[in-house]
Amino acid sequence: RARSPVIRANIAIALGDITVCFNNLIGENVQYLYGPLHDTNTKVKKTTLMVLTHLILNGMVKVKGQLGEMAKCLEDKDTHVADLAKLFFSELSTKDNAVYNNLPDIISSLSVGAGAVDEESFGRIMKFLFEFIKEKDRQTDNVVDKLCQRFRNTTDTRQCRDIAYCLALLPYKSERSVRRLLDGLPGYQERLAEDAVYKYFSDVVGKARMQAAQKPEAKALVEEYETKLREARARAIGEDEDEVAAQAAEEADGRTTQYSDDEIDEDDEDL
Q: Out of the domains of life, which is the source (predicted)?
């Protein structure tokens, strides 16, 4: 509550020193370490961010759902604060899957509640964070699983869009990821009534199809998922499922014909 930004910044430093010396006393008062990240003064925010970066990266503070507060700094109007936040997450990504392990809590913190950010900011933040897990297939598979489960536990329309957006950020290099989407379909099929959610899942199908282009088994799995996704969408909005399924089959046949034509053209060029 001090009026002077200098005093508030110094308090942030003092709290950091207390945490180092008396780590066991912080406990339930850890929120006081993160509070100044939302100070009206840029100097206070920068100081707090640097203090927390030092504490977290050196293992002096155990993160328990507060990384969302750090993630909000990625969208700070001051470029120095935003750059410090990017540096923090880049360093954190090298520490025992720390970003991956805290991703569900970060999504919740940014998507729902009084502290949620707007959807455009959410999109930019998640796009940045997902870069740290996209290259690891096993982590990608597990994230797909966890996000699909989240649909079962929310009725919030905004959060459903955010979850679907996060799913669309993943690369879908393995068949396991598509299989988990297919297995999780009962949990989110009702959400497909919303156009934005369905669009994100359609984007997922497009990505998966590109990855599976040279793998017959994977291609069949993607086509099965696309058909069931369309049928679920039809049920959700009250369309004729049989008609939708027939249209999907026709498009699949068209793609198969296109692949065959491409192969013939390649052979002709060789001749």
A: Eukaryota
